User: Which sequence fits this backbone?
């Protein structure tokens, strides 16, 4: 196991990233010049239509695939310059939840969570941690089930537990709540936000679900492989508007610089987004259905 001193959050810097595929004669730019900065400990939602390059971008950041151009820096690691023999080390610092789970079919749920520890034989403490994580994603009692005996949503939760097992400094999660009912999805999300607030884990999470994206610090939208816009909580966005209006408890609180009598659709949008934030009352901690308080980190340490 990584031990109690496992990673704090890792920052992510992506510059000019390009990934092309050539299925047949044409060249497809799946990721087409993406620049993205994620601060250590930030929770960023990655949204966008199907085929817009979200999974490809996540795979590149996780060093599961190589870009054609551009650079990726995670913490102090220049991922794009890593030698092949250094990749396993890097991947151990990054938790990855795949869109299609990728569980090992011959291993039980428990052994799938323990898989990152292989080939070493997992110790008692690691076993306890794996069991605890399965319990936290609602799969206590299903430790011995093979993936073929689990529903899609249950397999997804095993994959989430596996990604958290190494206490990653960066969690890359590709639609981790996509197959879960709303209640279970919210529980998983609360677990992730709790992890972020207690361990400073950086989270980059792909979602099609607006209510999930709204619980992130900000959302980045990909369209045709390009970053389209940033929404919510982003002061830079506010500064680029003609004016920004802040709502607190449903009332206009203050008007910021750039004040002009004109109203643009963007400005309208910003007002609406802030309104939604205010209503949600979310301020970087766990979501509205957060589990009872109790330090996850210390529970992990004591297990
Ligand atoms: N291995 C591959 N070979 C050829 N084309 C690929 C490959 N992987 C992805 N693509 C193409 O790259 C584009 C981006 O795919 P990607 O899987 O990143 O989209 P996505 O935004 O994750 O979509 P979804 O929301 O449906 O998961 C798509 O047009 C897809 O067909
Ligand atoms: Mg995808």
Assistant:
């Amino acid at each position: 196991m990584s031990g109690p001193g496992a990673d704090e959050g890792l920052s992510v810097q992506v510059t000019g990233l390009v990934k092309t595929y050539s299925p047949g004669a044409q060249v497809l730019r799946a990721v087409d010049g993406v620049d993205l900065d994620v601060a250590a400990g930030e929770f960023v939602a990655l949204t966008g239509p199907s085929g817009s390059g979200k999974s490809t971008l996540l795979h590149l950041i996780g060093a599961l695939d190589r870009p054609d151009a551009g650079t990726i820096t995670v913490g102090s690691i220049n991922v794009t310059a890593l030698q092949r023999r250094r990749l396993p080390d890097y991947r151990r610092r990054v938790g990855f939840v795949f869109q299609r789970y990728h569980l090992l079919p011959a291993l039980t749920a428990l052994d799938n969570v323990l898989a990152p520890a292989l080939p070493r034989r997992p110790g008692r403490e690691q076993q306890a941690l794996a069991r605890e994580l399965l319990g936290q994603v609602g799969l206590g009692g299903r430790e011995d089930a093979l993936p073929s005996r689990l529903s899609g949503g249950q397999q997804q939760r095993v994959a989430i537990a596996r990604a958290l097992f190494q206490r990653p400094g960066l969690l890359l999660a590709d639609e981790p709540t996509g197959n879960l009912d709303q209640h279970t999805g919210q529980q998983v999300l609360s677990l992730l936000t709790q992890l972020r607030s207690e361990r400073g884990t950086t989270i980059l999470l792909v979602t099609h679900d607006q209510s999930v994206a709204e619980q992130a610090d900000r959302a980045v939208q990909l369209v045709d492989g390009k970053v389209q816009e940033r929404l919510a909580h982003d002061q830079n966005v506010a500064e680029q508007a003609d004016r920004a209006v802040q709502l607190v408890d449903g009332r206009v609180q203050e008007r910021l610089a750039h004040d002009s009598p004109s109203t643009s659709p963007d400005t309208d949008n910003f007002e609406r987004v802030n309104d939604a934030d205010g209503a949600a009352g979310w301020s970087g901690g766990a979501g509205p259905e957060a589990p009872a308080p109790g330090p996850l980190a210390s529970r992990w340490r004591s297990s």
Remarks:
- The pocket of adenosine-5'-triphosphate (ligand 1) is lined by residues 21, 23, 28, 30, 48, 50-56, 99 (CB under 6 Å).
